[in-house]
Design a protein that fits this description.
With 306 residues, the protein is mainly α. It has one domain: Rhodopsin 7-helix transmembrane proteins (Rhopdopsin 7-helix transmembrane proteins), CATH 1.20.1070.10. Strands 2-1-3 form a 3-stranded mixed beta sheet. The longest helix is centred in the last third of the chain and has 35 residues.
Length: 306
Amino acid sequence: MEPENQTRVSEFILLGLSEDTKLQPLLFGMFLTMYLVTFMGNLLIILAIISDSHLHTPMYFFLSNLSFADICSTSTTVPKMLVNIQTESKMITYGICLTQMYFFMLFGLLDSILLAVMAYDRFVAICHPLHYTVIMNPQLCGLLLLASWLLCLLDSLLHVLMVLQLSFCTELEIPHFFCELNQVIHLACSDTFLNDLVLYFASGLVGVIPLTGILFSYYKIVSSILRISSAGGKSKAFSTCGSHLSVVSLFYGTGIGVYLSSAATQNSRASAIASVMYTVVTPMLNPFIYSLRNKDLKHALEKLFS
């Protein structure tokens, strides 16, 4: 066991995306703009779904929760980064770091599971259209959402509790713009084998399993669509899941791309820059994808503005 005085960490240092002082105003303006667009875009999606009774369906119910998760996810990381740039400080206290880590994992995992639940919803709608209202009833939708929240809450809490058991020495610089779990674990001077083991196992549980469910759902969806004889029927069936498939591709494509690039380069700063894609850019683009590719949602937004 490490000495007690090593475990009492007061603060970490977030190195951010660049140490060049000339780039800081540019980074501040860019991230402030992306955050405001993300916040307003997802908020409009939520308000449009709430205000239009035609959108009170399982698909839009889960979409509104996905938009809420995107707002919360970016709100846990970007505002702190903006404050650090504005105050020219790189410090983040130990408590705030753990809190940021917890909520970022919570809403990031919730994104992944909600995308899998939405894929199941599209599978039922296309492959079992006559039984859709019976299968996707309000009770099941509520149960799926509750199970998603509980799984994410418990998984994030487990990781944070395990980090609390670690001892930290003098090297407390995090080469990132927020407290990312893997980066914090690597700063510990005590044994992190159990943390790494749980991290990889949990990543498989809440990452690979939802992705497998999504791929299986779309395999069944495509198989079902190909059996439709009319071209119009095929086009209509594909259009009902086009927006969701685009968001899934963007979410997992950027996440896997960042993981592979960081594994290949072994450069923490390059990994931090690449992670901007799935932490900030993807939540910002989701509202545009759904609003531009979805006639019902576009109509609801027009009614909201009018």
